Amino acid sequence: MQRQKIVKRSLQRVHRRILRTGGAWYKGKWYNQDTASALTNRLYQQQTPASGTPAPHDSRANSRAQVHSVTTHLPSQSPRHLQVYTWNVGGLGGGLYDEILYYIHRHPVDVLVIQETKWRFTSRWDTHQYFFVHSGSSAADFKQGGLLTIVAKRLVDPGTLRYVDPLPGRLLRVQFYRHSQPCDVLNFYQHTWKATDHIRRLRTQALDHLTRTIHMIPKRSLMIIGGDFNATCVHSAPHVGRCVMERSQLWATDQEDLQALILGLHLCALNTFQSQHPHHTYMWGTQQSQIDYLFVRCDMADGLSRQSYAMHDHPLGAWRGGARHFLVHAQIPTHWRPWSGHASPSVAPAVDRHAIADALSGKADPRIQAFRTDVQSALNPAPASISELHDTVHTLALKHFPKPVPVRGPRPWQDGTLQQYASRMWGHLRSLRKWAARKDAHSSLQALFQCWRHSTLHLRMHRDARQQGRELRKQRRLSLLSDADQAIRQGQSRQFYQLIDKLAPKGRFRKFQMCKGGDLLTPAEELEVMRKHFVQLFNHDRPGNSTLSSTSLAETADTSFQVCSHELQVYLDKLPARKAGAPSTAPGAVWRACSDLISPTLAGLLNQRWDHSPLTPPEPWVRATLSLLLKPHKSGSAPKDFRPIGLLDALGKASISMLMSKIRADLEAYIRTSPQFAYLTGRSTSDALRRVYVHNTAARAMRMPSTRDPHYKRAGGKPVTLQGALQVCLDLTSAFDFVPRHLIAEALQDAGITGAPAQLLLSWLHACSYDLYVEGKCAHIPTNRGVKQGCPASPLLFAAFMTLITRRLSSRLTPEWVAQYLTMFADDFHVGKCFYGYNELEPGDNYVLSFEHPWNQFLTQCLADPDPVAIAPAQDAPVDAARSILTTGRVLRADPTSCDTTRNTSHIVSVSGSVASSTLFFNMATGAHSSQAAEEVLGQLQSCFGGVLANKRSAEEPGQMPPDQGDRAQKTGRGAIALGGSGKGFQGKGGRRRPGGRQQGRATPSSDNRSYASGSTLDSEDAELLHLLAKAVVRHEDTLSVLRRSTGWVFWIRSGENSILPMLADLAKTWYGKANSQEIQPNRVSLRVALMWGIMTCLKDKLTGLTQDQQAFAIRNTWADTNGSWNYQKWDAHHQTLIVDTTRPPLSTPQALESLGALLQVLNGDTLTRFAATQEIRADAQGKITFNADISLRAPGSEALYQELVRLQGSALFQIIGVQFKPEGYNRPPLIRRIHQLAG
């Protein structure tokens, strides 16, 4: 056979690369000089016709082959380097996404980082070749971002891929291990430059996050940084090469920050050394800039990696017009470690429980009969233990019903027609560039025609590809809808919900992973964090109570517990066929398929075990595997974001269900004595809701027209003295996990359940433990409290425990009162009562406080709080005080651990705000009892000044103070209120000036110290005395500064839009009017208290009624994070602005409202001794007004007031009303500094 010359261009390129670099990729395989002969034979065979005669030359066919070729020009590649790309796509639509997928699956792309997708979600998914990790945000400043990192699966050791987005949509870190070597890929997208302070802060914040993230990456890790930095670099060897564009001084004036980051972190910009290609990575019309970079550490950059450049001839997205970024490619060297190869972990085989369930439901499957035959043969002779029985049946189930490998359905980019469109489109683009590169292209008619032709065909292919992609996606949706309709018609609910979940998932998939302080945790560290959390959750510090055994029940218990095989078979047949069980165990469908065969053997083994005391379950049945379900609206970055569910052995579930059947009748009869509407036959959610609706309907029936309605008065209507409704809603957090087990034993004894069933049940309960698995690693978690979520016995045991608590309530109240006004559904409580007058309100008050008293004991025991919650007795809350109180709700705290707080909130909501005209919001006593005087102060503040906060500010400017108020305020100007230094009950800046301005006594010496120049003895003594007096004043002020460091605070209130200065002016004016008319007592409600109360109450009202636009504005200004929590701020002296304080965790809105409420509770004239302005305040004041405040040291509640101010200090929450404050510092005032300077 005659050897022909190689004609195919792609094969020629492969041949040249092998000769030039020693190797090349061809159709997914690597060829070097040793294997080049096999490739050469293959190439010549492809060019030789089957008949042995040379094929005729067809230029048209060759031209078409060139146009339709898929291979694009790529630089020579090395097997010891990673092929890394970065690209700003400027918006990633469906058509471009399909094009990228088709390209990366046809070319050796290892890592691709994409910026500006404009997707707003965060998720992770994969194909058969690549992992995809996306980070996005819907915040106003971040929704234009969006980062997508694509990593080839061949690089990643199984189970090692993790990610974290320190700045969602702007900074994404993906970490994985390649042959046990850590690799970190950072995807970064800087904010577009704009000469505003807000954009400068955002760009500085982004670079700060990038710097902190780089510092967290160890030196041993292969770090790759790619992205759009929206700034240019300057030459600085060896960090930045000479191939950089000239920097514009009028654009991005903070570009020095990027240069400082490169030099300070010893990075190397790879695409700044190649001089054979254009330098710019961005182009818009005639504007060109170099703003996209790939960085590695300098010690990782070799000669080949420094050949990185922007690929201007790349076909991806070439059909787009307008501004365009170019793909930047680099080859990153890797450490070759043949001694540290990572073995892929073997996947444990699983049983296809759905196939067994289908066979049990009537679907013909011959494997069922074969399985039953093998089980019957394996049971002869009978196994010697329950574990041996389980292993035998499980092995046979794996043999007959192995779980098949899931098959991925075809994706739109895998469609042959779409791929053909992409190939032809790229071919026409390459031909267009080839014709346009000719020297005579602008004057040759042939070249112009060919350019026009290929350009038209390129755009046509793109339109056809987009249309084909839309049709494929539409066809997929219609196919899923058709399958769902067919599934629901056939009664296959499971398949129906699976299809619906594909069409409309509840949320984006988030794989379990955790981070700490923005740093990723290894699987071992994640396991340890989760283990510590669940050990604290399932155990408390007083094991003496929880380990209460069933000794009292065992005294009368039988010595044995017999099991009937027929009864055991019944509960084996009731096992859910499709429900997942513990790992490496046989699912319920397996036992249902052979229940009649194994029930006699299992009954014999259990009778042999439970024939004598102690009665204990088999050890595999009490060990559950924790399955973590992400709670709604949680990020999954903390252990408390997950709900623990215990996966049990199916045999154990059937056995404990059989055990519960022997005591179910007595236990349900006991639970029915309480108003519990969960877990019982004949009671449902509708019944519980109906009781609540009846109460609300009765409350609404009490609604009366307003007494201010003249028509109602004319008709002779008279308002009642007092009427309203009282509701208490209580929800327990993690109620199943906090139940004391000794109280369950008491509940069983109270229900009359004794003997062997009770003893076995309690032994089962006390022996419970969990196994937690993270990436193949396991941790064992013992327990001494709580009941398992997922165990068949847990619901009734929990209901019995709640019935015990309800009976204790009945002992303090009456059974009739509890049955009429209390409603329970699992761990949710509702108490509702209507009252008509004070004669019914006062007993209701006693009932509510009596209702809380047993909960004090429950919270102490169930939540393991070492300090019981103090609940005031009924007689400590007189009704007279309630007539002037206007508050809402209370919070009970019980800390099971020092770091975790469980809050149980009971809201006492009066429905008469929309139901009755005479509304009463009743407040139960707080943990630390507030005095009656403090409650009266709060009542007077709300009743007298609530209108000022409600109206905020009238349209008229405040006029001049009346003449009769001259003794209370200085009339320093029109419309001005002097808030500092005067007025009853107000401690201002000091004593008043003497009238007339006359100076009595010795004259003050001049600033040039001429009075010291006299040579007389008297003058010398006076000078010395004055000098000593000045030093004493300075020392006295220093001592006061040290004391005020513990009591003093400085407040700044900003003027302008949304300022509260007009409200404070109106509040002061209202206070003077109320004080003159004797509506308030100035010695009880001072002006300083009224002003501080107004600030905190206004902030609380604004925080409660915050709109979505206001929340978005707060997030945009970095006052709040994306989760709605309020950041802390600190002063940055370098940039002269406030920045986010990352050392303090953000304050959530419920925490902020809690602090504000606690602060208002202790605010009175005794705790707040000073709140004075340093200058006059006007409604139209400009700039900032400074207020000095002092907190008492000894008054009751002063320590709580100081601690709440410390907690709120620095929070950006106060920015919404234009307020900032900080503790008093040690700086001397200007006057004292001047005295110290003159005194020497």
Automatic annotation (TrEMBL):
Domain called Endonuclease/exonuclease/phosphatase: residue spans: 86-297
Chain segments carrying region Disordered: 46-75, 952-1016
Domain of life: Eukaryota
SUPFAM superfamilies tied to this protein: DNA/RNA polymerases (SSF56672), DNase I-like (SSF56219)
Biased composition (Gly residues): 978-989
PANTHER family, sorted: REVERSE TRANSCRIPTASES
UniProt protein name: LINE-1 retrotransposable element ORF2 protein
Molecular function terms from GO: catalytic activity
All residue ranges annotated as the Reverse transcriptase domain in the record: 634-831
Gene3D superfamilies tied to this protein: Endonuclease/exonuclease/phosphatase
Bias (Polar residues): 62-75, 1003-1016
Signal peptide interval: none
